[in-house]
Amino acid sequence: MSSLRFRYQTSVFGKHDIHFRCLRDRNQFEDIGGIAEELGISSASWPLFGMIWPSGEVLAQLMSNYDIKNRRILELGCGVGLASLVLNARDADITATDIHPCAESFLNHNTSLNSGPIIPFWRTSWEDLQNKEKGEFDLIIGSDVLYEPNQSEKLCEFIQHYTKTDCEVLIVEAGRGYAAKFGKCMSTLGFSPDVIFQEEWAGHPEKFKGKIHRFRRAKNKRH
After folding, report:
1. Three-class SS string for the chain?
2. With CB atoms counted within 10 Å of each terminal CB, which end of the chain scores lower, N or C?
3. What is the percentage of the chain residues whose pLDDT exceeds 70?
4. pTM as predicted
5. pLDDT in tens, 166-205
């Protein structure tokens, strides 16, 4: 039996009430089989996937009315899956990813809480460029994925590998200072940047101080 302690709640995103389970606090840890250790996930960082962060709430709120028609969507670092759950409720073609070994079980549990269809999940790191059979995506989304200085190049390479020629990338950045480097890298791949929200998000002004970065690329822009 799991020794983890959970918290259940319901949040409203647009027209949708989304029910989800997250970790009760950051003192939780359970690494059955040592999988997290093998992946380089420390006991201190282990619970972070299972917490609710302001940037994740912002992304979920954005997805409540974002254009999803005829778009294949990939979420990076889904955690407990808020944005993917919102998109699933809207019948979007959504695939979720995360490197954490427990992310899939949390996502499946939360999908069940919302009586939704199973969300395809893919446990991967940004160094993983071997799964071309996963196909290419029209829209890639992520929240707080720029949290280390050396991640920009790896993330850009991953995005390049799994996006269609005409595509869009939407990143909710938590203000950690690495967005400029990521933006430069995206520009070299033919993406045009557009900061669509520079100030505090009205939904959580006391918590979210980051920015929402949108990158678009058309056929004649790809390098």
Report:
1. CCCCCEEEEEEEECCEEEEEEEECCCCCCCCHHHHHHHCCCCCCCHHHHHCCCHHHHHHHHHHCCCCCCCCEEEEECCCCCHHHHHHHHCCCEEEEEECCCCHHHHHHHHHHHCCCCCCCEEECCCCCCCCHHHCCEEEEEEECCCCCCCHHHHHHHHHHHHEEEEEEEEEEECCCCCHHHHHHHHHHCCCEEEEEECCCCCCCCCCCCCEEEEEEECHHHCC
2. N
3. 91
4. 0.92
5. 999 999 988 787 888 999 999 999 999 987 765 445 556 5
